[in-house]
Amino acid sequence: MTWRLRTAASAVALGLLLISCGDEGEPDESDAESTAPAEAVDEDSVEDDAAEERSDDEDSSDDGADSREPVPASSSGPAENWPEPEKPDAMFEDTEEGAVAALEYWWAGLHHARNTGDTGPVREVSGEDCAICKNEIDVTTEVYEQDAWWVQDEYSVNMTDIWGDTDEIVVVAFSLTSGAFESYTDQGLQEEVEGQSDLSMEADLAFDGQWSVLQLEIMDEPEE
Description:
Elements: H1 43-66, H2 96-116, H3 120-124, H4 131-145, E1 149-152, E2 156-164, E3 169-178, E4 181-185, E5 188-193, E6 196-207, E7 211-220
């Protein structure tokens, strides 16, 4: 497969504005009423009101963050505010189904990485010695460091066989459909690559609290 790509200050003294100085000397009797001390302020009430205002501000800030619209990757730039793929519960279970779920999550993580530059999800389920995993992560990081990006279609995994011991290593044989992709820089479109169907692959996975991909191997590339 081809993976080429070039590419203030705050007003802290506000309280000082509340300080005022009265005239010196004793007040006349006639002014006694007007100079009578003001009713004491309920400090607890003030603190409660301030706390409520802060809470309202925080809620408003959270709503603003949640309201940011996800923007898909396009010729204008990489995806923005794009959600990470959701981890399936099964990948935390020591079963064959969990191994397959983790493998599918790996490809969803790669799709996310190529469209956003965020390699966190795919890195999290990649074994240290997985050569293809490392290559995909490194290439994606390099592309985005060069201010380039991809528009990547989704990958599709179709399991064909599975064997091994869930207490050790499970091998999943699968057929991969890799989506088409385009590569861009600020100079515009650099490359268009068509997707591939029925790419025969195998994955070794191991369980340690969650399933991870130890190795990926291309077994047989489809004829063109």
